[in-house]
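Chapter summary example.
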Amino acid sequence: MVSGISPQKQDKMFSRPKPGESEADLIHFQNQFLAARASPAVKIVKKADKRKGEERNSDAERPQLQDSKDVVMLDDFPDILPALTPGPPKKSKIKSACVHFDDEDPEERLENHDQHITAVFSKIIERDTSAEAVTMPVPTGDPFPRIFHRSEIKSEVKVGSGRKSIFAQKMAARRAAEKPATAPSAECTQIASASLDVLNPEGSAEEAPGANSSNGDNKADDVFISQRPCIITGEGLGCQKSEQEAQAIHEENLEKLQSMSQEEILKEQERLLAQLDPSLVAFLKSRRSGNVGQKNEIKMEQNRPEEFVESLTVPQCGVGTSLAMQESGLEESVRRDENMKMEITDDDLPVKPRKEWIHMDNVEFEKLEWMKDLPSPRQKKTKKGMQARFSLKGDLIPADADLPTHLGLHHHGEEAERAGYSLQELFHLSRSQLIQQRTLALQVLGRIVQKARAGEFASSLKGSVLRLLLDAGFLFLLRFSLDDAVDNVMAASVGALRALLVSSDDEKYLDCTFSWYQGMAAFPFVPNNEEEEEEEEEEELTGTEKSQNKKQKDENKPDADVARYDVVKGLLKTRIQHRLRYILEVVRPVPTVVLDILHILTRIARHSSEACIQLLDCPRLIETIVREFLPTRWDPHVAEPGCLLTSLHGVACAAAMKFIRVLASGGRSATARLLNKFEMKSRLIRFTAEDPQDLLLPREEAIRLNTEAFRLWAVAAGYGQACDLYRDLYPVLVRILQSLPELLSTSHEKNPMFELSVQRAAAVVTLLVHVTQTAGCTVELQAKLSSSCEDSEQIPPPPITWNQVSGLQPFLETSMKKFLQVISWTETWQILQPLTTTYMIYLGVYYSACSQQPSVNPVDCLEELERLTSEVLQPLLSQPAMHSMWDLLRPCSALCNPLSCSPAPESVFSIVSLSCTGGKPPLSLVGSKSPFPFLTALLFLINSITHIHKGLISKYSSVLSFEGLKDYLHQSWQTAPPSVTPASAWMLRHEYHLQYFALVLARKMAGTCPDYSRHASLYHCVAMALLSRLLPGSEHLAYEILLDLAFNPEFLLEGKTGGPEAADFSDILHLGTSAKLSQPGSAAASFSKPTRGALLRDSYQNLPAIRSCYLSHFVHLQPALVHSQASYQGRNYLIQSMLLPEVRGPILPSDWPFFPLISLYNKVTNAETRGAVLNSLPLDLVNTVTWNLQWVLLLETWRPKTLQTIPTAAKLARLMCIFLTGGDLFLEAPIHCYTAALLSVYCQPKALDSLNLDAPLPGLASFHDLYISLLEQFEGVSFGDPLFGVFVLLPLQKRFSVHLRLSVFGEHTSILRALGVPLQQFPVSLERYTSPAEDNLNLLRHYFRTLVTGALRSTWCPVLYVVAVAHVNSFIFSQDVTTQEADAARKSMLRKTWLLVDETLKKHLLYYKLLNAESPLGFDLYEQLPPIRLKYLQMVMQKDNKGNAPVLIS
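The structure predicted for these 1450 residues follows.
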């Protein structure tokens, strides 16, 4: 170490080496320096290592350098090389050496650093023993003190908290025996500080258990009998009597404490603790703790502690006891358990100690406590719940369960008497060094997760087990365990991961709905409640840019943050697919682990299209699965009965085929890669061409594999791919179709394979549905290909024609007729219903495509439809079983029974689940008795037939006459739908299909069915409700409803049957309302005010224009509409993915009738934000607003219940957009009239009672901000318009936020001059503004100020003038008990009112009586003040004029 540079000047300076000099020159310089015996410029000082003991002088031990030798010394290197393990100790960075200079005086250095003995002696400070008690030794007759041996003394002193050795116990017993002879007085043995005890809220932690008093009692004892101060020593007084002064202060404190009661001490303690710095309190406690051990030792030595208790002057319940009672969190039973600990004896031990055993003459029972039997577990009554413990099977063990110890559920952890393992202990075991413990912990955790997802702990445990595990890092514990090199640990982690992610029941129901109408498409399993920051995207970004932006943000986040809101995405970020591939390819685990991995991969593939792409891009993952688990040949011994598979590698597996099928649902490109790159076409031929019973597999596995192969083929055909296999496998398909009627002969048998065979047949028919759709597009694609130019995108036609698929229709129709004959056999029909449903769907698709084929004779097609109607469908509709099916719609509906869609008890938002764990009840939408799939397919077939053959519409009029259908439709639209969650969306989508087809059939029958007019309003209400409920992916249905149903005059028969006249008549008679229905006037040029009936009549006539307006405003849904139309219209060549868009909510918002207004307001607001100003608006915007208001008026008058889901406050906020959009738009005559008409509707008493401006409104961040904008707009462009004024006055009602009224009377008082709404035109009762009395003092002062200064006058703003006068009058004459500030303010206002120069205002404020709508002022006046008010006024004025002449008030 460099110690310093010498400042001495030398006579001869040695030159430094220069660039270019050789090594010989450097050696020459060194020899020259050594020969001159010069001192070096720097000095090397070795710092001592404190780990090696005292510092050694390395300079003294170092040999002297010889002049003639160049010696290099290596410090700290011993002669013997040290061992490599363990490594040499690390040197400390803090050395004892200091920097020294050569010219430093050695004597001065010695004085500064050398610790001489005189320095030690000079620092000795003797302890003050003046107050110590001096005791003489016990005199004995022996020349020397008698030798003490511990065996002569019996251990009679109980050991307190903490354990003592036997020697310490003997010494304590000896001192206790000698104490009676030599014990000092009680005053001399107490050393605690009274003042500190008052500050210390905690009891002593080391009290002797043998004492009769509690901790709190001992605490109180110390307060009053401590004779020496513990904190104050008097050292800082600087005088000789400092200790006496400190003692005097201490005695004064003791006297003060003795004169105080217990309550006063507690109160003073709380005050001190609140005032003092917490760090100071902690310091005082630390000083106190130094004497606690000594105090407890002295107390333990007391032979008669009751003497101290008797000498106390305070009650037994001391300060410490009270605090302990306040802070205790346990019940009395727990405290009794702790105080009833019995002393251990020989009888408690299973092994009795013997005296002949070495060193067992004195048994230490405390050390043998672990050997005694465990106490029986019992429920502890605590305020907090007890810790949950689980068995090795994952079952919850009751707290009072007394299980035998041989089960292996007891251990030496916490609560040793209770059997089972807690989650914390299982987590601890999962990180054990022992393989068996790690494996066991992961297996138990997996079973716990599986049972938790099944809801077995919902009624027993508080909170969610899954959420607790995920918050504790369970997901990454499993991920780390997957990387373990031990096969058992790896297998256990795979099993636990499957239990966490996969629900077998969810997969079961998804497979069941695969063959439903549009059942192949499914929503992605993406959580819909991610972090809000993920939702904040710029509006200008397209969908692709948003997706890329979101993906980039996720890549920059840590894995834990991503997994917190999406577990699957977090796992993919940890590259779990690569690890699973390694396990399958290299580790080659047992079949159970392989199946678990395939199920996990299937669940990951259901997440999203992006997840499917990542799985496809994983190197060798798909190749390994196809090669190992979908081989074309395998060992035939697998199919032998009783064959136990030791490895699934090299054997075909249905789970692998299902994974490939789900992966293909992720997109068109994914399916193409699977078919071509990964050779799945050959696998399809292999597993579909052969009958399941001929496959060398167990029968059940063979049927499942064959079914999944047909489903995969159906998915590929849904994209228009793999249709070339149809020609090759046509004989196979014909053979299967011919064998389908044989299912009827075996339906009565209780064969477990029968249901699997039905699912296989349904998968085959589903394949034919999509092949038929693809073949139906061949002619269209060929025409486009021949007419399109070379630059445009060309889609090649599929390798299949209509003539190749039309020959299968007779087979299917014949089979359907046979299956429909057993519809009255309930049990058989429930099993065959899925297959019959696919028959119906196939026929609907077949005839829709057949009617568009130029090669088909239209007459033949129509004749076939007539034959099908007369021979099959009409007899079917007349069967009694059909009536029962329509009646089951309501009990099985998810809309009518929202609880059927409720999430599972253990559902976690980061893991999407369909909540099917445990199975759905039979009477549910996807239950075994559900009529929805069959009736939806039937309505689809009927709509396809009536779309082609219009003459058959009347033949199906009986469908809409079923009472079960009408009852279901009536109940479904009036019931609030369940919240959109993954558990509800997939079921609601299928239910909406049935409603849509029923509405389309009703539209076709309008005018043809004589009973139609009675139910037109029902169908229109259902259409309006359905329009606001349809989910993403159903944009085509929403478009069709807007186009043909919502604005159809046939659904609004009120316009033809006297609806406008009835509205006028209602307004004349004021039926059902006491509100004023007179419309406010306009500030614009006078124009005739049409009646509400005339406005309704014009609106009804403008329905086509209104429809065009709304269709143009939903143009932003066009891209999604194109994809949806391709799916519903059967254009397979345009379908990009079988995964539907992510569900964030319905397609259209609930307030979609106001959408044109909102869109216009956003457009103007965004233009103003960018700096542009729209001074004038084109004519089409005026028409747009008019059409919007007309439509809303129609709905509010004739369909009010369809808008009841929109809050009244939200409706008013939407209408306020009219005034905030473009200058004087509201002054346009039609807009003004329709706005006034709607305002009269929203000002009715029922609407006003439901008005709530304080609740959050959908689509509105803050109503207060919107109202401030409205006030600013009123100041600028209102022109005193009464209609605009009513919208300003509505939020000022007394029950709404006071900040709205303060914004008018405090910040925008200038509008009071223009807010001239006449009292006769104001549609709201003034009692809503004046009752109850105002209690906000700031607002009352604003009222009074605006009245006195003349800013608020009756001629300018009559409504608010009445409100202000009423509130000020109520305030100044109020004699209720209130705060001093409010009392002074009301008396001051009363004095100022009496002294007003404006006699009119003075009279109004003093003589106000009550509201009167008939009065020109709006209120009545007293002719003279009531006696009570007169007396109060005189009292106030006399106090103000004290000393002067009395005030005369008349």
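To summarize the output: The two ends are 104 Å apart (CA to CA).
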